[in-house]
């Protein structure tokens, strides 16, 4: 145990009451599907100004939470994680707050970032700092008609490249989407395997940027200094709780938790 802090962004509470689930679905529609910008260029977030935070969207709330954790624990190593839209929140907040992140099945957020942060992404400043794992068969994180190229930092596809993974679907992308959220669960957290030290342990990874095949975690370590060790159990349990009748689209909400005694 290292005493480091992991901020874990929880998924959409689809099975909960409307006052908890509706804001999550609105976030999905406005920012992921419609591409609205959570933060305007030049806008600054004051995490201690309640009127600003309460009125803001879930992405700005995720930044506020992370800024508060950084201020309250200045001597701790802090990282973020999340699955699905929770992973999108982790990417977004980590890029703005400059902390490491590991995400799973998250859509990319490049287009939502302020221009000054986009320039840092373009310059490769988040390479090795923000790591995204995606299932190329998954419509939500892998991309619908074409591969999603808007993730921040490094992105690795599990078990296959995008083209090979989706050859059988051809023009039947609706079927692929239904398989992503239905019984085949391409979007689910169980598509990712980890070893005893928290390293990603799928049979193969494909670097989405270079196409290179990798046969062990890019953050490989022995002793728990690799992936975020707490996340698989936490995110899997969260995904189960948030399962809806139509499938398991686990998205983010800033009802987030930060945990100590976890590896980065």
Automatic annotation (TrEMBL):
Source organism, top-level taxon: Bacteria
Residues of the signal peptide: none
InterPro entries named in the record: AB_hydrolase_fold, Fungal_lipase-type
Fungal lipase-type domain sequence ranges: 6-96
Ranges for region Disordered: 245-264
Regions of compositional bias (Polar residues) in chain numbering: 252-264
Single biological process term from Gene Ontology: lipid metabolic process
Pfam families reported for this sequence: Lipase_3 (PF01764)
Name under which the protein is recorded: Fungal lipase-type domain-containing protein
Natural source organism: Bacillus cereus (strain 03BB102)
């Amino acid at each position: 145990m290292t005493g480091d802090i992991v901020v874990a962004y929880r998924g959409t509470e689809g099975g909960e009451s409307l006052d908890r689930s509706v804001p999550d679905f609105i976030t999905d529609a406005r920012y992921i599907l419609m591409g609205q910008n959570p933060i305007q260029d030049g806008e600054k977030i004051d995490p201690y100004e309640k009127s600003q935070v309460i009125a803001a969207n879930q992405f700005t709330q995720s930044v506020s939470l992370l800024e508060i954790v950084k201020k309250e624990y200045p001597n701790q190593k802090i990282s973020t994680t999340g699955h699905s839209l929770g992973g999108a929140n982790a990417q977004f907040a980590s890029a703005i707050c400059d902390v490491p992140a590991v995400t799973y099945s998250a859509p990319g957020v490049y287009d939502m970032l302020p221009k000054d942060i986009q320039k840092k992404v373009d310059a490769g400043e988040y390479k090795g700092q923000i790591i995204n794992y995606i299932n190329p068969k998954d419509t939500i994180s892998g991309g619908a008609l074409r591969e999603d190229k808007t993730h921040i930092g490094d992105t690795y596809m599990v078990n296959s490249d995008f083209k090979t993974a989706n050859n059988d679907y051809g023009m039947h992308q609706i079927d692929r989407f239904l398989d992503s959220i239905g019984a085949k669960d391409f979007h689910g957290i169980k598509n990712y395997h980890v070893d005893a030290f928290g390293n990603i342990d799928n049979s193969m990874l494909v670097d989405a940027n270079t196409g290179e095949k990798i046969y062990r975690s890019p953050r490989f370590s022995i002793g728990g200094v690799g992936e975020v060790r707490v996340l698989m159990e936490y995110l899997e349990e969260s995904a189960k709780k948030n399962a809806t009748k139509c499938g398991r689209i686990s998205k983010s909400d800033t009802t987030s938790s930060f945990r100590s005694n976890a590896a980065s």
